[in-house]
Amino acid sequence: MTMPEKHPYREKTRYFLDLENASGLTHKEYDDLLDVLRYHERKYYVDNDPQLADSEYDQLFKKAEEAEALHPEWLTAMSPTQRVGSDRPDGQNTIQHLSPMLSLANSYNEADLMDFDKSVRKLLGDKENIEYTVEPKFDGGSIVVVYENNKLITAATRGDGYIGEDITGNIRTLRTVPLSADFGASGLDRVELRGEALIPKDRFEEINARREEAGEDLFANPRNAATGGLRMKDPADTAKRGIEAFFYQIAHMEGSPVDEEVTNSHFARIRLLKELGFKVPVDGIKKCQTIEEVARFCEEWEAQREAYGYEIDGMVVKVDRLDYQEQLGSTSHHPRWAMAYKFKAKQATSTLEEVQYQVGKIGTITPVAKITPTQLAGVTISSVSLHNEDFIKSKDIRLGDQVLLERAGDVIPYIVKSFSELRNGSEKVIQFPENCPICDTALVREEEEAAWRCPNINCKAQVLQRIIYHVSKGAMDIDGFGKALVETFYEKGWLRNISDVYNLDYDQIRNLEGFGEKSVQNLRKSIEAAKNNSLTRIITSLSIHHVGKKVSSIIAAEISSLFELQEWTQEDFIAIKDIGPVVAKNIHEFFSVPENVKILRRMEELGVDMSQKDSDKPLDIAEDAPLTGKTILFTGSLQSMTRAEAKKMAEKNGGKTISAVSGNLDILVVGANAGSKLKKAKEMGTVDILTEDAFRELVG
């Protein structure tokens, strides 16, 4: 087999990223750093196949700037710091911009914003009343459009900041870009607008779902999907991509503005665009009187970025007065009157060092990637789930690969893709185990399931995970009985199955380090309270495959005692509405195992009430209940009730709660900071949209 050529940029990229600063670089290393930057620029802007997270590219760029500041004699016009990045492929029709479209300097914290403010004030001669306009920094594809005599004339990509690729035909297909706008009424003959082409988050998920069904490669993020869509040869294909355009700047205008404020205020120009029918970030734009107010607004948006319907990776801070902007001027790379406040990175790259295999409560084998510890969205990530064997194969992930990580919702780390072209031949295909890593039992895989499972229900790992789940909040909800405590008790031999939870020796627990009398009494109190839990919680806590809270509540409503299920046949289960043959088979098999019933009998002997409670009984819903036959969904932050209380209220009034906006949805109840679900419901036009107060009034 021919070994692949060693990739020339992989090791160099990692070397420069790991450098604390550029102070010790030699001239040769500086040249290498520029080569690395040029490579990543090309992959990012031209190929739409970034090999780095944005924050990592920024680190490399900053180190090049540091080296040039220390050694100005090294600097040449060929350095990437001396020009803006280009998205313009060779040989394409091009359009020259009416004004340069430069990059932005970056800031990452409040201290950087304060330094920016000091610099602005120094260059302006300490003028008072410097106002800043702050707006979202959209993570999409930049566009430049020109209107002349109220008509859309041309549209282009950002290109190298001076000349962009002609995409006029494709831009005309975007419904958020007016083909004409009455600039003439404002005294303007010709204008150049800056904007960003984006795909909403929910639409991006739909696109990837369709691509997955068709066996096509998935897009890494909405930005790649949008920028690729702008360059399609057939405008009809662009139209299908669902791209939208936000506009954030009038960069050039000719004529005699009627409104004097439009002449000298960036904020006033955005307001004019809104009045003319352009899509602008209304909720995300603010004129601030002080840099401290700017910092607070940026922090507010960082906290709510996930609820926003579009990807944003920061905020842009601009001096509002245009005469001040002109006085401040620009470097060859960026304007001195604007700065990007970057949010904590949601993406980063790392190396896959090892794969470990975890065994779940029903025997599911989950591969977990151990990666080189990496900072991501303010947290150090060292482990990432690889989900299952199919996930590994579909993304062609190998040991030793460089991988792109994303922290979805700033919570769950996720591997977006591996960088196959960075491989040097040392990477190894991941071999999924054939036997359980704990008990060595041969693994099995059911038809139409992605997971491999260990069929040995006495596998120690499964037993431990079942106990951890049994006491968890979603099951028996035993307060103070967390995973670490279960593991400690299991190691000491005090827990061997779920019935042991109700037979603990509290005198032994008192002797454990860190346990005082109050801790012991609180644990005992929580366990005693759990003995009177609903049948729904008890069934949920048994770790029966495919039997969650919803199925458990359906079963609990049909029986007066848990032990009645010993006598049920699979046909008895299937006869219940919403219980299918797979679930029926799983429950029937569980109660057919004598050891399982023995554990439940022991729990009953130890005081666990196995009878139906009032909360298990079917809701008594009137025939004329206001939500009978209606599906309902809640979105945003509810103010007067919790989400659980709202769902219960809906169900008591005959409604069925669902989890997504679709053609089956009848009512959407909207709380504060509602995002993409509200937007989608409005677009559908068939959904009744209610405020929280209107919902409460409807159900009385």
Which stretches are poorly predicted, pLDDT < 50 over at least 5 residues?
A: 1-5
End-to-end Cα distance: 74 Å
What's the gyration radius in Å?
30 Å
Strand content: 15-25%
Measured as a percent range, the helix fraction is 25-40%
Biggest sheet: strands, sense, closure?
5 strands, mixed
What spatial order of strands do you see in the largest sheet?
Answer: 2-11-10-3-9
Domain module tally: 5
CATH domain class name of the largest domain: Alpha Beta
- Please name the CATH topology of the largest domain: D-amino Acid Aminotransferase, Chain A, domain 1
Shape: globular
Question: How does the helix and strand content classify structurally?
Answer: alpha+beta
> What would you give as the CATH superfamily of the largest domain?
DNA ligase/mRNA capping enzyme
What is the tally of beta strands? 22
Mean pLDDT: 87
By DSSP (H or I, 4+ residues per run), the number of helices equals: 25
CATH architecture of the largest domain: 2-Layer Sandwich
Description:
Keywords: DNA damage, DNA repair, DNA replication, Ligase, Magnesium, Manganese, Metal-binding, NAD, Zinc. It catalyses: NAD(+) + (deoxyribonucleotide)n-3'-hydroxyl + 5'-phospho-(deoxyribonucleotide)m = (deoxyribonucleotide)n+m + AMP + beta-nicotinamide D-nucleotide. One of its GO terms (biological process) is DNA repair. It is an enzyme of class 6 (ligase). The protein has 700 residues and is an alpha+beta fold. The protein has 5 domains: 73 residues, Helix hairpin bin (Helix Hairpins); 249 residues, DNA ligase/mRNA capping enzyme (D-amino Acid Aminotransferase, Chain A, domain 1), CATH 3.30.470.30; 83 residues, OB fold (Dihydrolipoamide Acetyltransferase, E2P) (Beta Barrel); 157 residues, DNA polymerase, domain 1 (Orthogonal Bundle); 69 residues, Rossmann fold. Strands 2-11-10-3-9 form a 5-stranded mixed beta sheet. Strand 4 and strand 5 form a beta hairpin. It is globular and about 85 Å long.
